[in-house]
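Researcher: Quick test of sequence recovery. Tokens follow.
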């Protein structure tokens, strides 16, 4: 018991000192464990034995990217964002395209689709930016909910109509069926995977995603991979064998 005047009995002092040391030691263990987990997460990629073909998705916010270093990090391919909607183009697309090709990386294009913009305008933006090249990987259409950019999103029927028009035009340009890069929120709202028959590219850090209700072909396994190829975290993508 503590004595009057705030003094502590010797036995209790030893007890408190031991407990404080234990808590300090436990805190250090947790700190190091948390740091190790954070370091592992920022450097984690899926096993090559399970997913032999891997690569990255690059947009303007990731530049500059050293594509030689990206290949050294294990990338077999790279997808480059050509633009967004009907008017926004990635100014670094052509330069990144040439740099990736120089490193013998396979290249594909991602268009960030705006449900509130016309299909014709978006298709024109795509075909103006992305070259007609039989060696390109299948194009990918990124579909996500952005309430600031699209304040009055269309209903499912209107979305299907415009998106189908857009797909027809860009697939005519590339000569290949497109992939639907579906976010979890977009799929939850529109259930697009069961209505439009295209290969799926899904997202989910560290855990293989299943939110579309059918198998995916590509998976963004990490959106925060640190490599020597860029000053910013990159999105790392794998292909189902």
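Model:
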């Amino acid at each position: 018991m503590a004595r009057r005047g705030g003094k502590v009995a010797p036995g209790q002092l030893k007890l408190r000192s031991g407990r404080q040391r234990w808590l300090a030691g436990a805190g250090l263990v947790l700190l190091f464990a948390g740091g190790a987990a954070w370091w592992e997460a920022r450097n984690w990629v899926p096993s090559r034995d399970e997913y032999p073909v891997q690569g990255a998705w690059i947009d303007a916010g990731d530049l500059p990217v050293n594509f030689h270093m990206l290949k050294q990090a294990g990338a077999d391919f790279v997808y480059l964002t050509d633009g967004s909607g009907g008017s926004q183009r990635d100014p670094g697309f052509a330069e990144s395209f040439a740099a990736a090709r120089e490193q013998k990386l396979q290249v594909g294009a991602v268009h960030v689709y705006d449900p509130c913009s016309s299909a014709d305008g978006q298709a024109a933006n795509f075909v103006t930016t992305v070259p007609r090249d039989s060696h390109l990987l299948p194009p990918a259409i990124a579909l996500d909910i952005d309430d600031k950019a699209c304040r009055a999103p269309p209903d499912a029927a209107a979305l299907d109509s415009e998106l189908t028009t857009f797909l027809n035009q860009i697939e005519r340009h590339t000569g290949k069926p497109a992939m639907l890069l579906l976010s979890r929120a977009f799929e939850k709202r529109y259930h697009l995977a069961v209505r439009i028959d295209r290969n799926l590219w899904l997202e989910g850090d560290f855990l293989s995603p299943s939110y579309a209700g059918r198998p995916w072909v590509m998976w963004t396994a990490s959106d925060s991979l640190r490599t020597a190829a860029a000053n910013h975290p990159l999105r790392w993508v794998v292909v189902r064998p």
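Residues 28-36 have pLDDT under 50 and may be disordered.
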